[in-house]
Structures are given as structure tokens and as C-alpha cells.
Design goal:
Blueprint (H helix, E strand, L loop, with lengths): L2 E4 L8 H14 L3 E5 L1 H9 L8 E5 L10 H7 L4 H10 L5 E4 L3 H11 L10 E2 L2 E4 L2 E6 L9 H18 L6 E5 L10 H11 L4 E6 L1 H5 L5 E3 L2 H26 L3 H9 L1 H11 L7 E4 L5 E3 L6 H16 L2 H16 L5
Parallel strand pairs: 1-2, 1-4, 2-3, 4-12, 7-10, 8-9, 8-10
Antiparallel strand pairs: 5-11, 6-7, 11-12
Helix pairs in contact: 1-12, 3-5, 4-5, 6-7, 6-13
Amino acid sequence: MRIVLDAMGSDMHPAPEIQAAIQAYDRWGDPIMLVGPEALLKQQMQATSAPAEAVTIIHAPDVLEMTDKPAETARGKTDTSMAVGMDLVKQGQADAFITAGNTGGAMATALFRLGRIRGVKRPAVSPAIPVQGSMTLMLDMGANADCRPEWLVQFALMGAVYMERAFDRPNPRVGLLSNGEEAGKGNQLVKETFPLLEKSGLNFVGNLEPKEIYAGHADVVVTDGFSGNVFLKTSESVARFLLEMVRDEIRSNPISTLGGLLAKSAFARVRQVLDPSEYGAAPLLGIDGLVFIGHGRSDVKALVSAVRVARQAVETGVLEATREAIQGKLGQWGMAAE
């Protein structure tokens, strides 16, 4: 398994990436390709006790900074760690690319260097989020702030393929994020997308409010990137707020503290479920290559989880299945391939 990890992606790069690469090698036995400034990576690798074969260092002198303009950088900087890493995928020298760097930069670089799967209108950032008893894939979560109805239908198809392959969910249930369950609810985009999803042949379960999403009523939820990003950030903030509030209340008096100690293992399990690092990185579905984007705050645990997610996608043939599904549905949906 040939996984490329952007060594210059996370906020604390490259230390978390180096440690994650070593741990991934220990776990799966495949060396990780670390992409970044060669001298820096070699120097930091020498400070570890890892065997030389744990990583393969690929030189990339430039870094795509958070202050860079994504589109201009994607075209102008050809030697960034993102560009060099994605070129390895493009050339067939690697199976998947992972970065915890600038999301917009990763999106622009992927479009410029790998391109879209033929027929896909727009790629989508697609994180898995914890819900009751399982997890749900949501897309788009920020790549496309403004969307058209036919794009959401394609998001639904790509998400369904991913869940069916990577998570073994046969005939996954697809929902549409809205402010009400009824077919007539929602903004203009939701209202126009609803009938298209009804006729798509997918297992469409209708409009879903956030409470139905967290109750586990769908395996895939589609929305525009603006709404999806607000949904995700709000959910993360509320989860963090509740955990902190519970912790403060437990510490407020001796009786609560005793009860907290008795329930410590239960709280630990809840914290684990809500921990974003458990889910690694989100696939950028629709790109003609496997690309995964993690949070800038990704630590070693999150990056190892990202490697696990990427390996699952490679092993289950997500990219090939998505290509086939898009081509098979285009004519049926009346969408011309580009």
C-alpha cells in the first residue's frame, strides 16, 4: 500500500506527520511516503529511533501556506508538498494522498493536478460524523459554498458509493439536509434537489433535520458546502461546550466529583466517540485520484486514523467504483459527461 503523507500540512508540521508515519509503519508494515523539504525531514527522522525503511522521503522544497491564494498557488507553485504528493498519485507511483493543510489549497491543487472524474461537476469534502449507533457521511462540507441541484445529486451518488465500499453499507440511505422533513420545506436549492433525488434510483429517505441526522436516519447526507460547513463547525462547538460544561459541573462539589469518578469510563467512551481524531481525514470525492483532507489541528492520532481511512478506500476500490457509478448514471439522469 503506497500512501503519501504531506509532511508540511498540520499546524505543528512536520513532527506529527513524522510520528504518524512511523506509527503507521509499525501498524501496517508499509512505508509511508513523506513529502516535504528533504533536509528538514531527514534531520527530524534522525532524532527518532525508527528504522530507515519506515518512511520514504520525497523532496518538495515549497509549502502551500494558509495565507496563499489557493487557485494562484495551485498554478504557480509546482514544487509544494501538496503538488509533489498529488503528482505521485497522478503518475501511478502512489495509491492515495493525505494532507492536513489548507483545505482550499488542497482542493485547488487536486483539481489542477489530478482533475475531476469524467462527468463529475464538482468535488466534495466528505467527512464521516458520529451519530447514534454509527456514523454518517456528509457532503459537501466546504468545497462548494454555492451549489446546483444536479451537483447535490452527484454528491449523493459519490457518497453512497463511498459508504457502500469503504464502510460496507449495502444500499445506503441518502438524506437531504433541510429545515423540515416535509417535501416542500427548504430553500430553493433543496426544493429543486428533492425531486431529482426521488428519481435518482438511490435509496433516498427524504429531507432530514439535524435531529434526524444525529438519530442515525441516513448513511449519507447531502447539502451545499456553506450549510454543511456551518453544520459541522456548530456540531463540533456544541460537543466541545457540553463536554466542558459537564466536566466543570462534576468538579463543582465533592458529591458530583465522586459521581464523576464512578462514571469516568462512560465519559471516556463518549469523549472517544466525539473525538475528531478518531475519524482521521475526509475524502475529497469526485477527484480522479484518492485525496484525503484532515484538520489543521490534526495530531499524531488523527493522522494515523487518516492513513487507516485512506487504506480502506484503496483496498475497497472506492475510486474505480465511483468512476463506474458516475458513468453508469449520467445517461440515465440526462447529464452530459465532460
